[in-house]
Design a protein that fits this description.
Order of helices and strands: EEEEEEHEEEEE
Helix content: under 10%
Radius of gyration: 17 Å
Strand content: over 45%
Oligomer: single chain
Distance between the termini: 11 Å
Shape: elongated
Largest sheet: 8 strands, antiparallel, barrel
Length: 175
C-alpha cells in the first residue's frame, strides 16, 4: 500500500446550502489536509482516508456571512478550529464508484456519514509524480453537528436549510 497526500492546488472542498429555500449559497474551505493509504492497481478498493479542514478558512464570498459561520452560532471556529473525517470502510458501488463510510467530526460531535466516491483515474504529471483523482459527494444534516442557528422570515420562511451538500474534487499525490 502506498501513502498519498492531497494536492491542495488541484483540489477543491465545497459545500452548498439552501437560503430561504429558494436559492443556493456555495462555500469552500481553502485550508485543508488529507491522506490516503491505498493501492491504485486495484482502483483504491482498500483505501483508508483521513481529512481535515481549518474552519477559519471558510469562504462564501461574503465577509459578513463568513464571520457568522465562524461564530458560535455555527462552527465556533475559535473553540473548534478543525473539522475532520476518518474513513471506516469502503464498499464497491460500480465501476470505479464507491461508498466511503467514515466518521465526520464538527464541533466535537462525531457522526457516521456515507459519501459517494468516483475514482477518476491516475496519471503521471510533468515532474514524474503519480497523481490520482476523485470526485466525492454527500450530504449531512447540520443540526446533528450543533450548527443550529436559524431564523424565520416575516412570511414564515426558513432562512437556512438543515441539509448541507458536500462536493469535493480531489487530486492526490503518491508519496
Amino acid at each position: 500500500m502506498a501513502t498519498w497526500t492531497i494536492d491542495p492546488s488541484h483540489s477543491e472542498i465545497t459545500f452548498k446550502v439552501r437560503h430561504l429555500m429558494i436559492s443556493t449559497v456555495k462555500g469552500s474551505f481553502s485550508q485543508f489536509d488529507a491522506s490516503l493509504e491505498g493501492d491504485e492497481s486495484n482502483d483504491f478498493a482498500d483505501a483508508k482516508v483521513t481529512f481535515s479542514a481549518d474552519v477559519a478558512s471558510i469562504s462564501t464570498g461574503n465577509e459578513q456571512r463568513d464571520g457568522h459561520l465562524k461564530s458560535p452560532d455555527f462552527f465556533a471556529a475559535e473553540e473548534f478550529p478543525k473539522l475532520s473525517f476518518v474513513s471506516t470502510g469502503l464498499e464497491k458501488a460500480g465501476d470505479k464508484k464507491y461508498k466511503l463510510h467514515g466518521d465526520l467530526t464538527i464541533r466535537a460531535t462525531t457522526k457516521p456519514v456515507v459519501l459517494d466516491v468516483e475514482y477518476t483515474g491516475s496519471m503521471v504529471d510533468f515532474y514524474g509524480n503519480t497523481k490520482a483523482g476523485f470526485d466525492i459527494k454527500g450530504s449531512i444534516n447540520r443540526l446533528e453537528y450543533g450548527l443550529s442557528w436559524n431564523a424565520v422570515t416575516e412570511a414564515g420562511g426558513i432562512v437556512v436549510s438543515d441539509e448541507v451538500k458536500l462536493e469535493l474534487d480531489v487530486q492526490m499525490t503518491k508519496g
